[in-house]
């Protein structure tokens, strides 16, 4: 099967012997994940902004309706 302890020892040995190669490999492996995280964060921020804008629009509409009803009663 897969020996996790032996693999971990290999990775530690590799990191100790060739630290720049190890860091480069880790950086290259993680870069797509960082990019995906940035894109998803940006999309989430845009969705939140759109939702807040829509809520403000609805609130303003409700305020205008209430104001019109008050003026109509007078």
From TrEMBL:
UniProt-annotated location(s): Membrane
Family note: Belongs to the SMIM15 family.
Name of the protein this chain belongs to: Small integral membrane protein 15
Secretion signal, residue range per the UniProt entry: none
Region Disordered, annotated ranges: 55-74
Keywords associated with the record: Coiled coil, Membrane, Transmembrane, Transmembrane helix
Chain intervals with Basic and acidic residues compositional bias: 55-66
Coiled-coil intervals: none
Entries under PANTHER family matching the protein: SMALL INTEGRAL MEMBRANE PROTEIN 15
TM region positions: 20-42
Main location: membrane
Membrane topology designation: Single-pass membrane protein
Keyword Membrane (UniProt): yes
């Amino acid at each position: 099967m897969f020996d996790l302890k032996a693999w971990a020892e290999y990775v530690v040995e590799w990191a100790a012997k060739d630290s720049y190669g190890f860091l480069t490999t880790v950086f290259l492996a993680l870069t797509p994940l960082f990019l995906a995280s940035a894109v998803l964060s940006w999309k989430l921020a845009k969705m939140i902004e759109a939702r807040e804008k829509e809520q403000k629009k609805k609130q303003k509409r409700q305020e205008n309706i209430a104001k019109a009803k008050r003026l109509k009663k007078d």
